[in-house]
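quick one before i forget lol
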Amino acid sequence: DVRARRMFNGMGIYTGEKMFAFLYGEDVGLKLKPSDLEQALNLPGAELMRTAASSEPMKEYVRMPREVLDDFERFVEWITKSAEYAASKQIS
């Protein structure tokens, strides 16, 4: 149950009603639980996702580095963590 919706000059990727990824240009930002977020931010080239150079960062989203995006197995691993975390969050 994955779908996409345009937002902020990019594309939000949802599982059900919960967004777990954000695509902006060639960047992919993944929503991650705090422990995974910390681990992802330690990857070379990773940083908090932004929708534009001057925008505020999306605090739970990590812009994944090219080395992850280019490695299918690693990318699937991170996407799975992201989708599972988003799906586990309660609607507020």
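fyi DSSP finds three helices and six strands in the chain.
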